[in-house]
Design goal:
about 425 residues, alpha/beta, D-Maltodextrin-Binding Protein, domain 2, ten-stranded mixed beta sheet, about 15% strand
């Protein structure tokens, strides 16, 4: 890793402020839920939920959305569901929301009720299927199978581009035109995060900067890999030189699986881990592992400052939590007002200075450094990554249907289960 991208230990201490266990675990829960569904057969799981794998024909399928938006008016209320501990907070209040209400007159009913994507989706799905309002004008869901189903079943209102000029002006390249929502038709990013590699340099005896290090015989029996097939397949493709995983094919998946099988059969992998991978690193059972960045930050300030997180030279997988307006929302214009408000650098700075995820608005960096006088946040490469690091961010594949997802899991699950 280039020196400019190294994570300064003196900076890391501030990260713990926003990266709490409850919020970090949501990515784990997302992946765990997906893995559980795959074990039971994703097709059967979705069939039981009444979810199709193709474009839906529900209430949102044939709407003239230009005409819809032309008739909408601000109502003065915004009902919003988000994840816990995922917005700036002071003495139980949210300063950014307070400012929004002051400037727009819109009262925000903010509910941090989303604990994981699968459970929230299961809660709102039957309501949307019944063509009724779920009671929220704005929700936040991670890119993945649940979001794909929301889009495919036409359960989201397309965003009104004319009401989001700040996104057009200030949004980072990393959050524009994502593969799971081309053209940001339905979503804009709330915050993003990374899946990379962690290691203990006192055990490896040398720096680590490549996913190839996960396959190095020198670390035989001391490598941790993830038990989630999405993450496992992704790193296998990275090791095979597959940069554009968003456009990968079953042949790419099978080639990655062959490499992962050899890694397993050569005894390099100690275990395929769930969230317990971080404890294995802490205990020295593994020396190097696939990792989520926030887990390593927490470990650094829980008695394990020796652990390091890196964005490998081949790339790290980037995931996005996304704002969207569900079908039948009562106050869609009010939701659009928030989206536009949120994408101002000054507002992003207020929120980013507390949450410490990958910021979707690069211009917030200068505000944090100068006006908020918080150089630790402004200098963090995992909040404001340099372009050289951004060039190594890789997007996950977006499954087009149940059959495709079943094919993917049939390729990678046997590696884990064996």
């Amino acid at each position: 890793m280039p020196k400019e991208e190294a994570i300064d230990p003196d900076i890391d201490v501030a990260l713990i402020r926003g990266l709490t266990e409850g919020r970090l675990s949501r990515r784990t829960l997302l992946r765990g839920a997906a893995a559980g569904a795959a074990a039971a057969g994703i097709g059967g799981f979705l069939a039981a939920c009444g979810v199709s794998g193709s474009k839906g024909t529900g209430a949102g399928a044939d709407v003239d959305w230009d005409a819809f938006w032309s008739k909408q008016k601000k109502q003065g209320t915004l009902d919003w569901a988000n994840w816990p501990l995922y917005i700036d907070t002071s003495h139980g209040e949210h300063p950014s929301i307070d400012l929004f209400t002051k400037q727009t007159g819109i009262k925000v009913n903010y509910k941090p009720v989303i604990q994981d994507n699968a459970a929230f989706f299961a809660q709102i799905r039957p309501v949307l299927q019944a063509e009724q309002s779920i009671g929220y004008d704005l929700i936040v869901i991670t890119d993945g199978w649940e979001l794909t189903q929301m889009i495919n079943n036409r359960w989201l209102i397309p965003l009104d581009r004319g009401r989001m000029p700040n996104f057009q002006k200030y949004a980072a390249a990393t959050v524009r035109d994502p593969s799971y929502d081309p053209g940001n038709q339905y979503t804009v990013t709330w915050q993003s995060g990374l899946t990379g590699v962690a290691y203990d340099p006192s055990k490896t005896g040398r720096p680590v900067d490549s996913v190839q290090d996960l396959f190095d015989p020198a670390f035989k029996g001391k490598v941790g890999m993830m038990s989630d097939d999405t993450e496992l397949g992704a790193v296998g493709m990275l090791a095979n030189g597959m940069d554009d995983q968003a456009n990968s094919t079953p042949d790419d998946w099978r080639a990655a699986a062959e490499l992962l099988k050899k890694q397993r059969d050569d005894g390099i992998v100690r275990q395929y881990y769930d969230q317990s991978y971080i404890k294995a690193l802490e205990d020295g059972d593994t020396w190097i592992s696939q990792a989520w960045s926030g887990d390593v930050f927490q470990a650094n300030h829980s008695g394990f400052p020796n652990l390091k997180f890196v964005v490998p030279k081949e790339g790290a997988m980037i995931w996005h939590d996304n704002c969207m307006i569900p079908l039948h929302a009562a106050h869609p214009v009010d939701a659009m007002e928030w989206i536009n408000f949120y994408y101002q650098p000054s507002i992003q700075a207020m929120i980013e200075d507390w949450v410490w995820y990958l910021c979707p608005v690069p211009g917030a960096r200068q505000v944090i450094a100068n006006e908020l006088d918080d150089p630790a946040v402004a200098k963090s490469p995992l909040v404001f990554p340099p372009r050289s690091m951004q060039s190594r961010f890789r997007e996950y594949y977006t499954f087009k249907g149940v059959e495709e997802h079943d094919e993917y899991t049939s390729i990678f699950d046997p590696i884990i289960q064996s």
